[in-house]
Amino acid sequence: MAMIGAGLVCLFLLLGLMDAFSFWGNALFQALFYGGLYLAVIPPARISVGLFCEERRNQTLELLYLTGMGPGELFAGKLVGGVLIASGDLLALIPFMAVPFLSGGLSLDLFWASIACFPVLLLFTVAVGVLASVLSRDDGAALAVAVLLASAVCLALPLPYNLGREVAGAPPFSSDWLCLSPAYGPYLVAHNFAGAKPGTFWMAAGATVAWALAGLGLAAVLLRRTWRREIERTAPGGWRLKWDSWMHGSAGWRARLRERLLRGDEGWRKAESAPTWQAALRDYQQAQGLETADGQSSWTAALRGQPWPGNTFQWLAEQDRRPALLAWAVVCGTVLLWLLGWCAWPRAWPSPVNLCLTALLLASVTGIIRTYAAAKTIGVARREGSLELLLTTPLRPDEMVEGQRAALRAQFRPVRLALLGLFALMMLGGFLTRDWNVRAAISYVLIWCIFFGWCLQDTPGDVSWAMWVALNTGRPTFAVFHFQRVAWWYIWMVFNARNLWSGLMVARKFPSGSILELVTVSCIFVFIAIMAWLSQYYPQHFRWSAEEPREYLISDMRSIAREPVPDPRDPRFKNWNGRGRLPEP
Predict the structure, then answer these.
(1) What are the pLDDT digits (tens) for 541-571?
(2) What is the DSSP secondary-structure string of 62-126?
(3) Mind listing the pLDDT tens digit for each residue in 261-291?
(4) Is 289 left (phi over 0), alpha (psi -120 to 50) or beta?
(5) What is the DSSP annotation of 534-556?
(6) E strands along 364-456, which residues?
(7) Is residue 16 a contact partner of residue 103, using CB atoms and an 8 Å limit?
(8) pLDDT confidence of residue 488
(9) CB-CB neighbours of 365 under 10 Å
Protein backbone atom coordinates (compact mmCIF):
# COMPACT_ATOMS: atom_id res chain seq x y z
CA MET A 1 0.00 0.00 0.00
CA ALA A 2 2.89 2.34 0.71
CA MET A 3 4.28 1.60 -2.75
CA ILE A 4 0.90 2.38 -4.32
CA GLY A 5 0.71 5.67 -2.43
CA ALA A 6 4.27 6.62 -3.41
CA GLY A 7 3.63 5.79 -7.05
CA LEU A 8 0.43 7.85 -7.06
CA VAL A 9 2.20 10.83 -5.54
CA CYS A 10 5.08 10.58 -8.02
CA LEU A 11 2.62 10.45 -10.91
CA PHE A 12 0.82 13.61 -9.82
CA LEU A 13 4.11 15.38 -9.09
CA LEU A 14 5.28 14.56 -12.60
CA LEU A 15 2.03 15.86 -14.09
CA GLY A 16 2.37 19.03 -12.06
CA LEU A 17 5.94 19.60 -13.25
CA MET A 18 4.84 19.21 -16.84
CA ASP A 19 2.03 21.73 -16.29
CA ALA A 20 -0.51 19.11 -17.35
CA PHE A 21 -3.06 20.73 -15.06
CA SER A 22 -2.77 23.35 -12.36
CA PHE A 23 -5.04 21.72 -9.78
CA TRP A 24 -3.04 18.54 -9.34
CA GLY A 25 -2.88 18.96 -5.56
CA ASN A 26 -6.66 18.92 -5.23
CA ALA A 27 -6.92 15.95 -7.60
CA LEU A 28 -4.27 14.06 -5.62
CA PHE A 29 -6.16 14.80 -2.42
CA GLN A 30 -9.38 13.41 -3.89
CA ALA A 31 -7.64 10.22 -5.05
CA LEU A 32 -5.92 9.67 -1.69
CA PHE A 33 -9.08 10.50 0.23
CA TYR A 34 -11.26 7.98 -1.59
CA GLY A 35 -8.52 5.38 -1.30
CA GLY A 36 -8.30 5.99 2.43
CA LEU A 37 -12.08 5.90 2.68
CA TYR A 38 -12.04 2.43 1.14
CA LEU A 39 -9.29 1.25 3.51
CA ALA A 40 -11.16 2.65 6.51
CA VAL A 41 -14.42 0.83 5.70
CA ILE A 42 -14.07 -2.33 3.59
CA PRO A 43 -11.06 -4.19 5.15
CA PRO A 44 -12.06 -3.35 8.75
CA ALA A 45 -15.59 -4.58 8.05
CA ARG A 46 -14.33 -7.88 6.64
CA ILE A 47 -11.98 -8.42 9.56
CA SER A 48 -14.26 -7.34 12.41
CA VAL A 49 -17.30 -9.39 11.39
CA GLY A 50 -15.33 -12.61 11.86
CA LEU A 51 -13.81 -11.88 15.27
CA PHE A 52 -16.41 -13.64 17.44
CA CYS A 53 -18.90 -15.44 15.21
CA GLU A 54 -16.35 -18.12 14.32
CA GLU A 55 -15.82 -18.92 18.00
CA ARG A 56 -19.57 -19.21 18.50
CA ARG A 57 -20.10 -21.30 15.37
CA ASN A 58 -17.27 -23.73 16.15
CA GLN A 59 -18.22 -23.78 19.87
CA THR A 60 -14.64 -23.08 20.93
CA LEU A 61 -15.61 -20.71 23.74
CA GLU A 62 -15.23 -23.61 26.19
CA LEU A 63 -11.61 -24.11 25.10
CA LEU A 64 -10.88 -20.42 25.62
CA TYR A 65 -12.55 -20.63 29.03
CA LEU A 66 -10.24 -23.51 30.03
CA THR A 67 -7.20 -21.29 29.44
CA GLY A 68 -8.40 -18.97 32.21
CA MET A 69 -9.45 -16.26 29.77
CA GLY A 70 -12.57 -14.32 30.67
CA PRO A 71 -15.04 -12.56 28.39
CA GLY A 72 -13.43 -9.17 29.07
CA GLU A 73 -9.97 -10.39 28.07
CA LEU A 74 -11.36 -12.11 24.98
CA PHE A 75 -13.23 -8.99 23.91
CA ALA A 76 -10.34 -6.61 24.51
CA GLY A 77 -7.74 -8.89 22.93
CA LYS A 78 -9.71 -9.59 19.78
CA LEU A 79 -10.78 -5.94 19.48
CA VAL A 80 -7.23 -4.58 19.73
CA GLY A 81 -5.90 -7.27 17.40
CA GLY A 82 -8.64 -6.58 14.88
CA VAL A 83 -8.01 -2.83 14.95
CA LEU A 84 -4.27 -3.30 14.47
CA ILE A 85 -4.72 -5.64 11.51
CA ALA A 86 -7.45 -3.49 9.94
CA SER A 87 -5.47 -0.26 10.24
CA GLY A 88 -2.20 -1.46 8.73
CA ASP A 89 -2.90 -0.47 5.13
CA LEU A 90 -4.56 2.77 6.19
CA LEU A 91 -1.54 3.82 8.27
CA ALA A 92 0.67 3.20 5.23
CA LEU A 93 -1.39 5.61 3.13
CA ILE A 94 -2.12 8.45 5.58
CA PRO A 95 1.37 10.08 5.49
CA PHE A 96 0.95 10.83 1.79
CA MET A 97 -1.99 13.11 2.66
CA ALA A 98 0.61 15.73 3.60
CA VAL A 99 1.70 16.12 -0.03
CA PRO A 100 -1.52 17.84 -1.25
CA PHE A 101 -1.39 20.11 1.80
CA LEU A 102 2.24 21.12 1.15
CA SER A 103 1.43 21.73 -2.51
CA GLY A 104 -1.32 24.16 -1.60
CA GLY A 105 -4.15 21.93 -2.75
CA LEU A 106 -6.10 22.14 0.51
CA SER A 107 -6.37 24.29 3.61
CA LEU A 108 -5.04 23.51 7.06
CA ASP A 109 -8.54 22.90 8.45
CA LEU A 110 -9.34 20.47 5.66
CA PHE A 111 -5.99 18.73 6.16
CA TRP A 112 -6.62 18.12 9.87
CA ALA A 113 -10.18 17.04 9.15
CA SER A 114 -9.04 14.53 6.54
CA ILE A 115 -6.41 13.10 8.90
CA ALA A 116 -8.96 12.71 11.72
CA CYS A 117 -11.71 11.37 9.47
CA PHE A 118 -10.07 8.01 8.76
CA PRO A 119 -9.39 6.69 12.30
CA VAL A 120 -12.83 7.83 13.47
CA LEU A 121 -14.52 6.07 10.58
CA LEU A 122 -12.38 2.96 11.10
CA LEU A 123 -13.36 2.86 14.79
CA PHE A 124 -17.04 3.10 13.87
CA THR A 125 -16.71 0.36 11.24
CA VAL A 126 -14.95 -1.95 13.68
CA ALA A 127 -17.60 -1.28 16.35
CA VAL A 128 -20.45 -2.13 13.99
CA GLY A 129 -18.62 -5.24 12.73
CA VAL A 130 -17.89 -6.45 16.27
CA LEU A 131 -21.53 -5.95 17.29
CA ALA A 132 -22.70 -7.90 14.24
CA SER A 133 -20.12 -10.62 14.95
CA VAL A 134 -21.45 -11.04 18.48
CA LEU A 135 -25.02 -11.28 17.19
CA SER A 136 -24.34 -13.84 14.42
CA ARG A 137 -22.79 -17.27 13.94
CA ASP A 138 -21.91 -16.94 10.25
CA ASP A 139 -19.44 -14.53 8.66
CA GLY A 140 -21.77 -13.77 5.78
CA ALA A 141 -24.74 -13.20 8.05
CA ALA A 142 -22.60 -10.99 10.30
CA LEU A 143 -21.55 -8.91 7.29
CA ALA A 144 -25.18 -8.49 6.25
CA VAL A 145 -26.15 -7.46 9.79
CA ALA A 146 -23.25 -4.98 9.89
CA VAL A 147 -24.35 -3.42 6.60
CA LEU A 148 -27.92 -3.09 7.88
CA LEU A 149 -26.84 -1.54 11.19
CA ALA A 150 -24.43 0.90 9.54
CA SER A 151 -26.99 1.87 6.90
CA ALA A 152 -29.65 2.48 9.52
CA VAL A 153 -27.37 4.72 11.61
CA CYS A 154 -25.83 6.58 8.66
CA LEU A 155 -29.03 7.17 6.65
CA ALA A 156 -31.55 7.74 9.43
CA LEU A 157 -31.14 11.54 9.24
CA PRO A 158 -29.63 12.35 5.79
CA LEU A 159 -32.31 10.43 3.93
CA PRO A 160 -35.36 12.34 5.26
CA TYR A 161 -33.38 15.59 5.11
CA ASN A 162 -32.62 15.23 1.40
CA LEU A 163 -36.04 13.79 0.61
CA GLY A 164 -37.71 16.78 2.24
CA ARG A 165 -35.50 19.21 0.37
CA GLU A 166 -36.15 17.58 -3.01
CA VAL A 167 -39.78 16.53 -2.59
CA ALA A 168 -41.24 19.30 -0.46
CA GLY A 169 -38.75 22.05 -1.32
CA ALA A 170 -37.52 22.48 2.27
CA PRO A 171 -35.76 20.12 4.69
CA PRO A 172 -37.83 18.91 7.65
CA PHE A 173 -35.16 19.88 10.24
CA SER A 174 -31.96 21.86 10.61
CA SER A 175 -28.76 20.67 8.98
CA ASP A 176 -27.06 20.65 12.41
CA TRP A 177 -28.82 17.37 13.15
CA LEU A 178 -26.86 15.76 10.31
CA CYS A 179 -23.82 15.73 12.59
CA LEU A 180 -25.34 12.69 14.28
CA SER A 181 -24.80 10.67 11.09
CA PRO A 182 -21.37 8.95 10.78
CA ALA A 183 -21.51 9.54 7.02
CA TYR A 184 -21.72 13.32 7.40
CA GLY A 185 -18.07 13.79 8.40
CA PRO A 186 -16.62 12.07 5.29
CA TYR A 187 -19.14 13.97 3.17
CA LEU A 188 -17.89 17.30 4.54
CA VAL A 189 -14.26 16.38 3.90
CA ALA A 190 -14.95 15.17 0.36
CA HIS A 191 -16.80 18.40 -0.52
CA ASN A 192 -14.46 20.88 1.25
CA PHE A 193 -16.90 21.27 4.19
CA ALA A 194 -19.84 21.82 1.72
CA GLY A 195 -20.32 25.41 2.85
CA ALA A 196 -20.31 24.52 6.58
CA LYS A 197 -17.82 25.64 9.21
CA PRO A 198 -14.85 23.42 10.15
CA GLY A 199 -16.31 23.04 13.64
CA THR A 200 -19.24 21.16 12.13
CA PHE A 201 -16.90 18.35 11.11
CA TRP A 202 -15.53 18.00 14.63
CA MET A 203 -19.07 17.80 15.99
CA ALA A 204 -19.80 15.03 13.50
CA ALA A 205 -16.55 13.26 14.44
CA GLY A 206 -17.47 13.40 18.12
CA ALA A 207 -20.90 11.95 17.39
CA THR A 208 -19.30 9.15 15.36
CA VAL A 209 -16.96 8.30 18.25
CA ALA A 210 -19.98 8.21 20.56
CA TRP A 211 -21.77 5.81 18.20
CA ALA A 212 -18.66 3.60 18.11
CA LEU A 213 -18.33 3.51 21.91
CA ALA A 214 -22.02 2.70 22.27
CA GLY A 215 -21.68 -0.17 19.78
CA LEU A 216 -18.60 -1.56 21.52
CA GLY A 217 -20.29 -1.33 24.91
CA LEU A 218 -23.38 -3.14 23.67
CA ALA A 219 -21.22 -5.81 22.03
CA ALA A 220 -19.29 -6.34 25.29
CA VAL A 221 -22.52 -6.79 27.26
CA LEU A 222 -23.97 -9.21 24.73
CA LEU A 223 -20.72 -11.21 24.55
CA ARG A 224 -20.65 -11.62 28.33
CA ARG A 225 -24.19 -13.02 28.32
CA THR A 226 -23.53 -15.22 25.31
CA TRP A 227 -20.28 -16.48 26.87
CA ARG A 228 -22.02 -17.55 30.08
CA ARG A 229 -24.98 -19.20 28.36
CA GLU A 230 -22.93 -21.13 25.81
CA ILE A 231 -20.31 -22.25 28.34
CA GLU A 232 -22.87 -23.40 30.90
CA ARG A 233 -25.12 -24.91 28.20
CA THR A 234 -28.16 -23.32 29.80
CA ALA A 235 -31.42 -23.00 27.94
CA PRO A 236 -32.81 -19.49 27.61
CA GLY A 237 -35.63 -18.45 29.86
CA GLY A 238 -38.06 -15.59 30.28
CA TRP A 239 -38.34 -13.27 27.34
CA ARG A 240 -35.45 -15.00 25.57
CA LEU A 241 -37.41 -18.25 25.59
CA LYS A 242 -40.43 -16.51 24.08
CA TRP A 243 -38.23 -14.83 21.49
CA ASP A 244 -36.57 -18.12 20.50
CA SER A 245 -39.97 -19.81 20.32
CA TRP A 246 -41.21 -17.10 18.01
CA MET A 247 -38.09 -17.11 15.84
CA HIS A 248 -37.60 -20.87 15.60
CA GLY A 249 -41.16 -22.03 16.18
CA SER A 250 -42.78 -23.34 19.33
CA ALA A 251 -43.11 -27.02 20.16
CA GLY A 252 -46.73 -27.00 19.04
CA TRP A 253 -45.86 -25.38 15.71
CA ARG A 254 -43.13 -27.95 15.09
CA ALA A 255 -45.49 -30.79 15.96
CA ARG A 256 -48.08 -29.49 13.50
CA LEU A 257 -45.41 -29.09 10.83
CA ARG A 258 -44.25 -32.67 11.36
CA GLU A 259 -47.83 -33.90 11.27
CA ARG A 260 -48.50 -32.06 8.03
CA LEU A 261 -45.32 -33.05 6.19
CA LEU A 262 -44.40 -36.48 7.51
CA ARG A 263 -47.56 -38.06 8.84
CA GLY A 264 -50.26 -36.85 6.50
CA ASP A 265 -50.70 -40.13 4.61
CA GLU A 266 -53.51 -42.50 5.56
CA GLY A 267 -51.38 -45.56 4.79
CA TRP A 268 -48.78 -44.38 7.27
CA ARG A 269 -51.42 -43.63 9.91
CA LYS A 270 -52.82 -47.14 9.52
CA ALA A 271 -49.35 -48.66 9.68
CA GLU A 272 -48.57 -46.81 12.92
CA SER A 273 -51.28 -48.78 14.70
CA ALA A 274 -49.47 -52.09 14.03
CA PRO A 275 -47.95 -53.77 17.13
CA THR A 276 -44.36 -53.88 15.82
CA TRP A 277 -42.19 -51.90 13.44
CA GLN A 278 -41.88 -54.91 11.14
CA ALA A 279 -45.64 -55.17 10.88
CA ALA A 280 -45.91 -51.39 10.41
CA LEU A 281 -43.45 -51.44 7.55
CA ARG A 282 -45.17 -54.41 5.95
CA ASP A 283 -48.55 -52.70 6.11
CA TYR A 284 -47.10 -49.47 4.79
CA GLN A 285 -45.37 -51.33 1.97
CA GLN A 286 -48.60 -52.92 0.92
CA ALA A 287 -50.37 -49.57 1.00
CA GLN A 288 -47.70 -47.92 -1.16
CA GLY A 289 -46.90 -50.87 -3.43
CA LEU A 290 -43.33 -51.23 -2.17
CA GLU A 291 -43.21 -55.01 -1.87
CA THR A 292 -40.11 -56.77 -3.12
CA ALA A 293 -40.08 -59.16 -6.03
CA ASP A 294 -40.58 -62.24 -3.85
CA GLY A 295 -43.45 -60.65 -2.00
CA GLN A 296 -41.55 -60.45 1.30
CA SER A 297 -41.38 -57.30 3.34
CA SER A 298 -37.98 -55.70 3.44
CA TRP A 299 -36.68 -52.93 5.69
CA THR A 300 -34.31 -51.77 2.95
CA ALA A 301 -36.98 -51.76 0.28
CA ALA A 302 -39.31 -49.74 2.47
CA LEU A 303 -36.63 -47.22 3.33
CA ARG A 304 -35.25 -46.81 -0.18
CA GLY A 305 -38.63 -46.83 -1.83
CA GLN A 306 -40.47 -44.25 0.25
CA PRO A 307 -39.67 -44.22 3.96
CA TRP A 308 -42.50 -41.84 4.81
CA PRO A 309 -44.94 -39.59 3.01
CA GLY A 310 -43.63 -36.24 1.93
CA ASN A 311 -40.03 -35.12 1.77
CA THR A 312 -37.96 -35.15 4.94
CA PHE A 313 -35.53 -32.52 3.67
CA GLN A 314 -38.50 -30.23 3.11
CA TRP A 315 -39.39 -30.78 6.76
CA LEU A 316 -35.79 -29.99 7.77
CA ALA A 317 -35.61 -26.83 5.65
CA GLU A 318 -39.08 -25.59 6.51
CA GLN A 319 -38.32 -25.74 10.24
CA ASP A 320 -36.04 -22.72 9.82
CA ARG A 321 -38.58 -19.95 9.52
CA ARG A 322 -36.19 -17.06 10.07
CA PRO A 323 -35.79 -16.21 6.35
CA ALA A 324 -39.56 -15.96 5.96
CA LEU A 325 -39.81 -13.82 9.09
CA LEU A 326 -37.05 -11.59 7.71
CA ALA A 327 -39.01 -11.19 4.48
CA TRP A 328 -42.11 -10.23 6.49
CA ALA A 329 -40.03 -7.73 8.47
CA VAL A 330 -38.77 -6.15 5.23
CA VAL A 331 -42.29 -5.88 3.83
CA CYS A 332 -43.78 -4.43 7.02
CA GLY A 333 -40.83 -2.08 7.61
CA THR A 334 -40.93 -0.75 4.06
CA VAL A 335 -44.67 -0.14 4.28
CA LEU A 336 -44.23 1.61 7.62
CA LEU A 337 -41.49 3.88 6.27
CA TRP A 338 -43.62 4.67 3.22
CA LEU A 339 -46.55 5.61 5.45
CA LEU A 340 -44.26 7.82 7.56
CA GLY A 341 -43.14 9.61 4.38
CA TRP A 342 -46.80 10.05 3.45
CA CYS A 343 -47.52 11.59 6.85
CA ALA A 344 -44.54 13.93 6.51
CA TRP A 345 -45.33 15.03 2.92
CA PRO A 346 -49.02 14.20 2.30
CA ARG A 347 -49.19 15.93 -1.09
CA ALA A 348 -45.75 15.43 -2.60
CA TRP A 349 -44.98 11.90 -1.38
CA PRO A 350 -47.62 9.73 -3.18
CA SER A 351 -46.68 9.49 -6.85
CA PRO A 352 -46.54 6.72 -9.50
CA VAL A 353 -42.72 6.78 -9.53
CA ASN A 354 -42.56 6.49 -5.75
CA LEU A 355 -44.95 3.55 -5.78
CA CYS A 356 -43.04 1.77 -8.54
CA LEU A 357 -39.71 2.25 -6.75
CA THR A 358 -41.21 0.88 -3.54
CA ALA A 359 -42.48 -2.18 -5.41
CA LEU A 360 -39.06 -2.64 -7.03
CA LEU A 361 -37.39 -2.53 -3.61
CA LEU A 362 -39.82 -5.04 -2.08
CA ALA A 363 -39.59 -7.49 -4.99
CA SER A 364 -35.79 -7.41 -5.20
CA VAL A 365 -35.11 -7.68 -1.46
CA THR A 366 -37.58 -10.52 -0.90
CA GLY A 367 -36.05 -12.32 -3.89
CA ILE A 368 -32.58 -11.99 -2.37
CA ILE A 369 -33.87 -13.34 0.97
CA ARG A 370 -35.47 -16.28 -0.80
CA THR A 371 -32.23 -17.09 -2.61
CA TYR A 372 -30.31 -16.87 0.67
CA ALA A 373 -32.79 -19.25 2.31
CA ALA A 374 -32.15 -21.75 -0.48
CA ALA A 375 -28.40 -21.58 0.08
CA LYS A 376 -28.50 -21.46 3.87
CA THR A 377 -29.71 -24.96 4.68
CA ILE A 378 -27.23 -26.85 2.52
CA GLY A 379 -24.42 -24.32 3.05
CA VAL A 380 -24.58 -24.50 6.85
CA ALA A 381 -24.86 -28.31 6.72
CA ARG A 382 -21.81 -28.43 4.45
CA ARG A 383 -19.74 -26.18 6.69
CA GLU A 384 -20.68 -27.93 9.93
CA GLY A 385 -20.19 -31.43 8.53
CA SER A 386 -23.80 -32.54 9.01
CA LEU A 387 -24.38 -32.84 5.25
CA GLU A 388 -22.21 -35.97 5.13
CA LEU A 389 -24.28 -37.44 7.95
CA LEU A 390 -27.50 -36.64 6.10
CA LEU A 391 -26.20 -38.45 3.02
CA THR A 392 -25.54 -41.63 5.05
CA THR A 393 -29.32 -41.93 5.48
CA PRO A 394 -31.60 -43.15 2.68
CA LEU A 395 -32.16 -39.50 1.75
CA ARG A 396 -31.08 -38.96 -1.86
CA PRO A 397 -29.62 -35.76 -3.40
CA ASP A 398 -32.57 -35.36 -5.75
CA GLU A 399 -34.94 -35.52 -2.78
CA MET A 400 -32.90 -32.81 -1.07
CA VAL A 401 -33.15 -30.51 -4.08
CA GLU A 402 -36.87 -31.02 -4.51
CA GLY A 403 -37.43 -30.74 -0.78
CA GLN A 404 -35.65 -27.41 -0.64
CA ARG A 405 -37.73 -26.08 -3.53
CA ALA A 406 -40.95 -27.28 -1.91
CA ALA A 407 -39.95 -25.72 1.43
CA LEU A 408 -39.30 -22.36 -0.20
CA ARG A 409 -42.62 -22.46 -2.01
CA ALA A 410 -44.44 -23.21 1.24
CA GLN A 411 -42.53 -20.65 3.32
CA PHE A 412 -42.72 -17.74 0.90
CA ARG A 413 -46.19 -18.36 -0.54
CA PRO A 414 -47.87 -16.11 2.09
CA VAL A 415 -45.24 -13.41 1.47
CA ARG A 416 -45.79 -13.51 -2.28
CA LEU A 417 -49.57 -13.40 -1.89
CA ALA A 418 -49.22 -10.42 0.45
CA LEU A 419 -46.97 -8.68 -2.08
CA LEU A 420 -49.49 -9.32 -4.84
CA GLY A 421 -52.26 -7.74 -2.79
CA LEU A 422 -50.01 -4.86 -1.80
CA PHE A 423 -48.95 -4.26 -5.40
CA ALA A 424 -52.56 -4.24 -6.56
CA LEU A 425 -53.42 -1.72 -3.85
CA MET A 426 -50.44 0.45 -4.78
CA MET A 427 -51.34 0.33 -8.47
CA LEU A 428 -54.91 1.42 -7.78
CA GLY A 429 -53.67 4.11 -5.41
CA GLY A 430 -51.44 5.50 -8.11
CA PHE A 431 -54.47 6.30 -10.24
CA LEU A 432 -55.70 8.62 -7.49
CA THR A 433 -52.55 10.74 -7.34
CA ARG A 434 -52.94 12.63 -10.64
CA ASP A 435 -54.89 12.99 -13.88
CA TRP A 436 -54.39 10.32 -16.54
CA ASN A 437 -54.70 9.90 -20.28
CA VAL A 438 -55.01 6.61 -22.15
CA ARG A 439 -51.34 6.23 -23.16
CA ALA A 440 -50.07 7.04 -19.67
CA ALA A 441 -52.52 4.56 -18.11
CA ILE A 442 -51.41 1.79 -20.49
CA SER A 443 -47.73 2.39 -19.71
CA TYR A 444 -48.48 2.44 -15.99
CA VAL A 445 -50.43 -0.83 -16.08
CA LEU A 446 -47.71 -2.55 -18.14
CA ILE A 447 -45.09 -1.61 -15.56
CA TRP A 448 -47.21 -3.10 -12.80
CA CYS A 449 -47.79 -6.25 -14.85
CA ILE A 450 -44.02 -6.72 -14.84
CA PHE A 451 -44.02 -6.47 -11.04
CA PHE A 452 -46.88 -8.96 -10.79
CA GLY A 453 -45.01 -11.42 -12.99
CA TRP A 454 -41.82 -10.91 -10.99
CA CYS A 455 -43.71 -11.70 -7.79
CA LEU A 456 -45.40 -14.80 -9.23
CA GLN A 457 -42.29 -16.39 -10.77
CA ASP A 458 -41.01 -19.54 -9.10
CA THR A 459 -37.32 -19.20 -10.18
CA PRO A 460 -36.19 -22.80 -9.58
CA GLY A 461 -32.96 -21.93 -11.39
CA ASP A 462 -31.95 -19.37 -8.77
CA VAL A 463 -32.69 -21.90 -6.02
CA SER A 464 -30.62 -24.64 -7.66
CA TRP A 465 -27.69 -22.35 -8.48
CA ALA A 466 -27.66 -20.97 -4.92
CA MET A 467 -27.65 -24.51 -3.51
CA TRP A 468 -24.83 -25.52 -5.87
CA VAL A 469 -22.60 -22.59 -4.96
CA ALA A 470 -23.32 -23.02 -1.23
CA LEU A 471 -22.51 -26.72 -1.52
CA ASN A 472 -19.08 -25.98 -2.98
CA THR A 473 -18.20 -23.08 -0.70
CA GLY A 474 -20.12 -23.66 2.54
CA ARG A 475 -20.93 -19.93 2.47
CA PRO A 476 -24.58 -19.04 1.83
CA THR A 477 -23.90 -15.31 1.62
CA PHE A 478 -21.26 -15.86 -1.06
CA ALA A 479 -23.84 -17.73 -3.11
CA VAL A 480 -26.14 -14.70 -3.07
CA PHE A 481 -23.99 -11.58 -3.09
CA HIS A 482 -20.79 -12.65 -4.77
CA PHE A 483 -21.70 -15.30 -7.31
CA GLN A 484 -24.79 -13.47 -8.53
CA ARG A 485 -22.83 -10.20 -8.58
CA VAL A 486 -25.46 -8.50 -6.42
CA ALA A 487 -22.74 -6.83 -4.36
CA TRP A 488 -21.21 -5.15 -7.42
CA TRP A 489 -24.65 -3.97 -8.46
CA TYR A 490 -25.11 -2.21 -5.13
CA ILE A 491 -21.60 -0.75 -5.27
CA TRP A 492 -22.42 0.66 -8.70
CA MET A 493 -25.66 2.10 -7.30
CA VAL A 494 -23.82 3.82 -4.45
CA PHE A 495 -21.14 5.17 -6.78
CA ASN A 496 -23.77 6.64 -9.09
CA ALA A 497 -26.11 7.75 -6.32
CA ARG A 498 -25.98 11.38 -7.39
CA ASN A 499 -26.79 10.62 -11.03
CA LEU A 500 -29.49 8.21 -9.95
CA TRP A 501 -31.05 10.83 -7.70
CA SER A 502 -31.02 13.39 -10.49
CA GLY A 503 -32.65 10.89 -12.83
CA LEU A 504 -35.38 10.16 -10.32
CA MET A 505 -36.11 13.84 -9.94
CA VAL A 506 -36.48 14.13 -13.71
CA ALA A 507 -38.68 11.02 -13.85
CA ARG A 508 -41.17 12.31 -11.30
CA LYS A 509 -43.59 13.02 -14.16
CA PHE A 510 -43.59 9.37 -15.31
CA PRO A 511 -45.75 8.24 -16.99
CA SER A 512 -46.17 11.35 -19.10
CA GLY A 513 -48.31 9.69 -21.79
CA SER A 514 -46.02 10.38 -24.74
CA ILE A 515 -45.92 8.04 -27.72
CA LEU A 516 -42.18 7.39 -27.28
CA GLU A 517 -42.73 6.43 -23.66
CA LEU A 518 -45.56 4.04 -24.56
CA VAL A 519 -43.51 2.37 -27.29
CA THR A 520 -40.49 1.98 -24.96
CA VAL A 521 -42.52 0.48 -22.11
CA SER A 522 -44.37 -1.83 -24.52
CA CYS A 523 -41.10 -3.09 -26.01
CA ILE A 524 -39.70 -3.76 -22.55
CA PHE A 525 -42.86 -5.61 -21.54
CA VAL A 526 -42.89 -7.75 -24.70
CA PHE A 527 -39.18 -8.55 -24.34
CA ILE A 528 -39.59 -9.65 -20.70
CA ALA A 529 -42.67 -11.72 -21.57
CA ILE A 530 -40.85 -13.50 -24.43
CA MET A 531 -37.80 -14.20 -22.27
CA ALA A 532 -40.00 -15.57 -19.48
CA TRP A 533 -41.82 -17.83 -21.94
CA LEU A 534 -38.59 -19.09 -23.47
CA SER A 535 -37.01 -19.77 -20.09
CA GLN A 536 -40.11 -21.73 -19.12
CA TYR A 537 -40.27 -23.99 -22.20
CA TYR A 538 -36.63 -23.96 -23.34
CA PRO A 539 -34.62 -23.74 -20.11
CA GLN A 540 -31.58 -25.47 -21.58
CA HIS A 541 -30.69 -22.34 -23.56
CA PHE A 542 -30.51 -20.05 -20.53
CA ARG A 543 -27.62 -19.51 -18.15
CA TRP A 544 -29.79 -19.61 -15.05
CA SER A 545 -31.83 -22.66 -15.98
CA ALA A 546 -32.75 -25.10 -13.25
CA GLU A 547 -31.65 -28.37 -14.86
CA GLU A 548 -27.90 -27.71 -15.08
CA PRO A 549 -27.24 -27.07 -11.36
CA ARG A 550 -29.73 -29.80 -10.44
CA GLU A 551 -27.63 -32.31 -12.39
CA TYR A 552 -24.51 -31.03 -10.65
CA LEU A 553 -26.14 -31.41 -7.25
CA ILE A 554 -27.38 -34.94 -7.88
CA SER A 555 -24.14 -36.27 -9.35
CA ASP A 556 -21.53 -34.56 -7.14
CA MET A 557 -23.19 -33.90 -3.78
CA ARG A 558 -21.88 -37.03 -2.08
CA SER A 559 -18.28 -36.58 -3.26
CA ILE A 560 -18.25 -32.86 -2.38
CA ALA A 561 -19.62 -33.51 1.10
CA ARG A 562 -16.59 -35.70 1.88
CA GLU A 563 -14.09 -32.97 0.99
CA PRO A 564 -12.83 -30.24 3.35
CA VAL A 565 -14.61 -26.91 3.14
CA PRO A 566 -12.41 -24.50 1.12
CA ASP A 567 -10.98 -21.46 2.81
CA PRO A 568 -12.85 -18.20 2.07
CA ARG A 569 -9.60 -16.71 0.71
CA ASP A 570 -9.02 -19.64 -1.64
CA PRO A 571 -7.77 -18.18 -4.98
CA ARG A 572 -9.84 -20.73 -6.90
CA PHE A 573 -12.95 -18.61 -6.26
CA LYS A 574 -11.66 -15.76 -8.44
CA ASN A 575 -11.95 -17.57 -11.76
CA TRP A 576 -14.75 -19.98 -10.86
CA ASN A 577 -17.98 -19.22 -12.71
CA GLY A 578 -20.07 -21.92 -11.02
CA ARG A 579 -20.18 -24.32 -13.96
CA GLY A 580 -18.90 -27.58 -12.63
CA ARG A 581 -16.97 -28.09 -9.44
CA LEU A 582 -14.14 -26.00 -8.09
CA PRO A 583 -10.84 -26.77 -9.87
CA GLU A 584 -8.31 -28.91 -8.07
CA PRO A 585 -6.04 -26.98 -5.68
Answers:
(1) 554 555 677 888 888 888 888 888 887 777 7
(2) HHHHHTT--HHHHHHHHHHHHHHHHTHHHHHHGGGGHHHHHTTSS-HHHHHHHHHHHHHHHHHHH
(3) 776 444 444 444 444 444 544 554 455 454 4
(4) left
(5) HHHH-GGGSTT-SHHHHHHHHHH
(6) none
(7) yes
(8) 46
(9) 15
